[in-house]
Amino acid sequence: MKIGIICEGRLGGEDAQLFEYFAKRIAPRAAVKAFPQGTKPELIDKAGDVAASLFETGYTRVLILWDIMPRWGRPDGEEQDTQDIQASLASAGVAVHPCLFLIAIHKELEAWLLADGTALSAVLSRPAHPVVIPHTKNADTETNPKKRLERLFEQHNVPFGPQPMQGAYQPKLAAIRIAEKIPANFGQLGKLDSFKKFGRSLTKAC
């Protein structure tokens, strides 16, 4: 099975990294590849053509994921985003494809990284500076998940690689490290509605 994931961001960015990583954990026998499209307006504009191209080139399942925030000056909400993506899909003739799934993340991808405190604790801790971060039980209601992650990294001054980052949260480095520490059963992350929908979209018959 070949799974294509259409998302925001750039090649090698945290969105593509995380979606591929989690998808491979959920569907280990599948070949998974993410296709980032830039900003949300760019994703919405390109979604239909990219999805159609993926199905035409042998992908058996396609997921489209996006963050509710920021709004990019658009009307509020998942409903509006979904309508606009559906219009793009309809123009490409794939709006009713049975193996095409839309997943909106509330409010942004960093909510997934905030959910499980054990993963954050493992990444933020050092031998001389153990850290215990509690679970965020309703991470998908956080007003600004990325800002909260940035504050945690600043607070604990976490170094990455040969050169310390002086506490800065650098998504391309830090996001995948947090993901790798999330428990095998996905812990608190597995309770978020958007992540559960992501999992179902990877495994349900279509």
Structure description:
Residues 162-166 have low confidence and may be disordered. The chain is globular and about 55 Å long. It has helices spanning 14-26, 40-56, 78-91, 110-115, 117-124, 145-156, 171-181, 193-203; strands at 2-7, 31-36, 61-67, 100-105. The chain is built from 8 helices and 4 strands, in the order βαβαβαβααααα. It folds into 2 domains: 2-109 and 190-203, Rossmann fold; 111-188, no CATH class.
**Major sheet description:** 4 strands, parallel
- Tally of helical runs: 8
- Runs in which pLDDT lies below 50 for 5 or more consecutive residues are 162-166
CATH architecture of the largest domain: 3-Layer(aba) Sandwich
What is the C-alpha radius of gyration, as a whole number of Å?
A: 17 Å
The name CATH uses for the topology of the largest domain is: Rossmann fold
* H/E element order: EHEHEHEHHHHH
Average pLDDT, all residues: 92
Q: Give the C-level CATH assignment of the largest domain.
A: Alpha Beta
Q: Helix proportion of residues, in percent? A: 40-55%
Q: Find the count of extended strands (DSSP E, 2+ residues).
A: 4
Task: Provide the spatial order of strands within the biggest beta sheet.
Answer: 2-1-3-4
Give the tally of structural domains. Answer: 2
Shape: globular
Strand content: 5-15%
How far apart the termini lie comes to: 12 Å
- Determine the structural class based on helices, strands and strand pairing: alpha/beta
List the quaternary state of the chains.
single chain
